[in-house]
Design goal:
The structure holds two protein chains of two kinds. By secondary structure, chain A is mainly beta. Chain A has strands spanning 5-7, 10-14, 19-24, 31-37, 43-50, 55-58, 61-66, 71-76, 85-92, 99-101, 105-110. Helices cover 0% and strands 56% of the residues of chain A. In chain A, the strands form two sheets. In chain A, strands 2, 4, 5, 9, 10 and 11 form a six-stranded mixed beta sheet that branches. In chain A, strands 1-3-8-7-6 form a five-stranded antiparallel beta sheet, with no helix packed on it. In chain A, 34% of the residues are buried. Chain B has strands spanning 5-7, 10-13, 19-24, 31-38, 42-50, 53-57, 64-68, 74-78, 87-94, 100-102, 106-110. In chain B, strand 7 and strand 8 (74-78) form a beta hairpin. In chain B, the strands form two sheets. In chain B, strands 2, 4, 5, 6, 9, 10 and 11 form a seven-stranded mixed beta sheet that branches. Chain B has a four-stranded antiparallel beta sheet with strand order 1-3-8-7, with no helix packed on it. Chain B is mostly beta strands. Classes of the chains: A mainly beta, B mainly beta.
Amino acid sequence: SQQGEEDPQALSIQEGENATMNCSYKTSINNLQWYRQNSGRGLVHLILIRSNEREKHSGRLRVTLDTSKKSSSLLITASRAADTASYFCATDGTGFQKLVFGTGTRLLVSP
Amino acid sequence: KAGVTQTPRYLIKTRGQQVTLSCSPISGHRSVSWYQQTPGQGLQFLFEYFSETQRNKGNFPGRFSGRQFSNSRSEMNVSTLELGDSALYLCASSGGQGDYTFGSGTRLTVV
């Protein structure tokens, strides 16, 4: 079974608005990563945040990590139609050499 | 640098047949992992190879197997295909710093 849960499952917004997605996980982690997937294609790495970091920025992306709550959030500011995709969080646990993915959030950005 | 290359992009197979998928990692990356993505189960870890050794295996039946060659290229094999094996198969290469780069995937359809 998947470790991570994401909410919302689907999100529909207008261009220019902000989009926030949340991820919860169950076990200790080395890091947490966010990926984007367009129409069932490959996963594109967006951002990695390590367990000793609380916030990280990359362009229009802002990720937070709260290890006490075992949760993370991804904020996309000033969304564009091209941001329409599915977004997944993935955790990399100690000694596991694998990623455990969340259930994903489908984001639709309308022009 | 070249990304992760998966071949073929699409495959249609008949139940009972077997299939072999290939993944060429980023040059210098010695870890290759495989994931299965289905609408019902999401993204699930299959196995991970490092320097030709399987280090970790997911909860999949023995029909799913893999190997890694001395040049780090990896193959996965699925024998006695079932309809439920229809999925997008993704491979990822890693340099060992928690960085995973995914290929575009192989879409397998079993009829």
